[in-house]
Amino acid sequence: MNFMKKIVLILFFWGVFSQISFGQQSLYSQYFSTPLSLNPALTGHFNGTIRFSSNSRSQWGEDGNPFKSITASVEKRLLANSTKGKFGVGMLFSSDNSNLDAYSVKKAVLSAAYNILLDKEGTIELGAGFQGQFNQRRINPFVLTFESQFESGGFNTSIATPEMAKAARMNYLSLNAGLLLNIKSLEGRQLYLGLAAYNANQAKTSFLDAAYIEPVRWNIQSGGTIPIDTRGSLHFSSIISLQQEASEILLGMVGSFNLDEAAEGKKLLLGSWIRLKDALIPYVGINWNGFQVALSYDITTSSIKTKANNRSSIEFSLGYQLWKHDKGEIPCPNF
Are 108 and 93 in contact, with CB atoms under 8 Å apart? Predict the structure, then answer.
């Protein structure tokens, strides 16, 4: 496929994405560290056989860690010897807790995707992925204290309160789907665009005697890689997350610098992201023979920082990839 046809294909996908306007729920700052929560089409999309990914976020820890999130996933690439495409399966588990676990959301996900080459040169790849997701939301008022429990000696948590009757648990299933377009040039440059719909079935749920429909959350991803001689590469990326009236936009860049002359297996990662109207996010990490460890810190730039001494967040990610690299393949999207 010639260069002009590639450009037309890119513009077509971008035109489709730009017509979407919904609005959101929260994301990790290191959104790229757990691919299954970014786009189902990324399942098994890597140059290896097994990939493990995890992320842990502590938000506003100076106020007693009211928000904590943990996500972990594992993927297996199948049809590793196929020259036509990649097929992968995976599982993801996540837990979000707030206010000493008074409110929590837990998810278990099964994911599958297939990415197929669109041209004979092997430079354009289109993938589709699907997920089945089990969700559990819980309210646990027993870990909190209330005004009616206060006595002369302090709070007496053995006193029953009307709020304790509000304990509740809700389970429901949701379906997710995604598309991914990945393009590689002969010079090693890479560009990718992705679109994912989470809770595409708009599950009908109820919680605390209130019934509602869970709205679709849209993720729009884009990014690419620019090689820098043998010294490393620059990786740029962005994500737009939309759900009804809410929206969140992150964009940034990371430099991947080789730590050995062989330029394989040992890399230093330095970069930064911006969450628009909210935070600056410096990032540092290291990749060592398939293991990747990284740390990021949200520096709040919005007006919320004036309402408390410190409203920042820290994230730690850990990943491992059993490597089986083929230089003839389109590399998996990074960052």
Answer: yes
Rg of the chain, C-alpha, whole Å = 22
Domains (range + CATH), the chain? 3-323 (2.40.160.40)
CB of 283 closer than 8 Å to CB of 270? yes
Residues 99-128: pLDDT tens digits? 777 788 899 999 999 998 888 777 889 999
Nearest residue to 192 via CA among 261, 123, 263, 289? 123
How many CB atoms neighbour CB 85 within 10 A?
14
The pLDDT tens digits for 219-273 are: 999 999 998 877 789 999 999 999 888 889 999 999 999 887 765 678 999 999 9
SS (H, E, C) 219-253: EEEEEEEEEECCCEEEEEEEEEEEECCEEEEEEEE
CA-CA distances (angstroms) from residue 266 to 46, 129, 257, 269, 293? 18, 31, 8, 10, 12
